[in-house]
Amino acid sequence: MNIFEKLAARAAQPPQDDAVAGFGTVSGVPAGIGSLGGASDVKRTARTHTGQVPTDFVTPVAVDETQRRIVAMAASVLLRYPEEDFLSHLDVVQDQLDQLPMALATDFMGFIDAARTAGLRALQEHYVETFDQRRRCSLFLSYYAVGDTRQRGMAILSFSQQLESFGFQLAENELPDHLCVVLEALGLAEGEDHARAVEMLASYREGIEVLRAALSQQDSPYVRLIVAVCKALPKVDAETAQKYVDLIRTGPPAEMVGIADLPFPTAQPDLV
C-alpha cells in the first residue's frame, strides 16, 4: 500500500487520543520545538543591512517521478495544521521513507522525530505562531509574488486555472495558492501533468526560499520539510536567485496599478 492509499485509509479512521509530550513554552517557543536549526547542507548566511541573505541554496537531489510525488505528498500532509490524527500521519510518511534517497529521508525523519518529541499541542501552538502570525512564513505562494494587492485575486485565479489544467479538483474550503494544495497536486500528477506541476511550483521558488530562510532563522523543525521540497525541485538559476534577494530585501510588492506584466505565471500566457 503506497502513501496515497494509506492516507486515504487513515482519513476513514476516527482520530486517536494523543499524549501531550513536551507541552509548554520556553521564551515563547513550544517545548521540543526549535532544537533542529537549518539543514546541514545549507551554507551559513551573510548579514547585510537588510538582514540575512543566504550565500547558497539547497543542493538538488536526483529523484525520479515516483520519488518526487512521494516527497510532494508527504510534505503536503505534514505542512498542514496538525489535527488530532496528525501523529498517525507521521507513521504513514515514515513508512514511505525507504523509497527515497537518504538525503531526503533524513529531512523527513528529522521533522518526524521533532514532532513526536514536542507532542501534538505544542506542535499546534508552534504552527499557529509560525505560519499564521509571521508574514515571511506565509504558506500562500501568491503573497510572495504580489503581496496584499489588488493583483492577489487574479493570482489566486491563475493558481486555480493551472491546477484544473492538471486535472486537480480543489476541496470546497481550499485556496489554490496554498503550498500544501500545490504540493498535493504535484503529488497526484503523473507524466506530462507532473512535469508541468513541477514547473509551476518552481516558478514560485523565490517565495519558497524566503519561507525556508525564515523557518531556518527561527529554528523551526518545519524547515526540514521545505528543504526536502527544494531538494526535489530543479536547481535555482541566476534569475530566480536575484528575485529571491530582491524579495527578501524589499518584501512583497505594495499596491500596483494596472495588470500589465503580471508577476506570476498563468494558465493563459497571452493574458495581460
Description:
- The structure is a single chain.
- With 272 residues, the protein is mostly helical.
- The protein has one domain.
- Helix content is 52%, strand content 4%.
- The protein has 12 helices and 4 strands, in the order αββββααααααααααα.
- The protein has helices at residues 3-11, 65-78, 86-96, 102-118, 120-132, 141-146, 151-165, 179-188, 191-202, 205-217, 223-231, 238-250, and strands spanning 25-26, 29-30, 45-48, 51-54.
- It has a two-stranded antiparallel sheet with strand order 1-2.
- Strand 1 (25-26) and strand 2 (29-30) form a beta hairpin.
- Helix 2 runs antiparallel to helix 11 (223-231).
- It is globular, with a radius of gyration of 18 Å.
- Residues 14-50 and 255-272 have low confidence and may be disordered.
